[in-house]
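ZP: hey, is the zinc ion complex queued? I don't see it on the tracker
AM: it wasn't, my bad. submitting now with these inputs:
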Amino acid sequence: MPDDLFQRYQAAHRAHQAHISACTVCTDTAYCRDGALLWESFVRLQDAYLQRKRRR
Ligand SMILES: [Zn+2]
């Protein structure tokens, strides 16, 4: 499962972008509760992905 983490990280990014463009509350620098949750999960997955990449 080499790219599973990458796929999830990309999906989280897309979900966040989709939310930002649909949400009337979120801005580039401030997110609503849902936007913040999506952002957090994206950051977590991105960190995990980048750390795994560095360890290789
Ligand atoms: Zn929002």
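AM: back. Residues 4-55 form one domain.
ZP: great, adding it to the tracker
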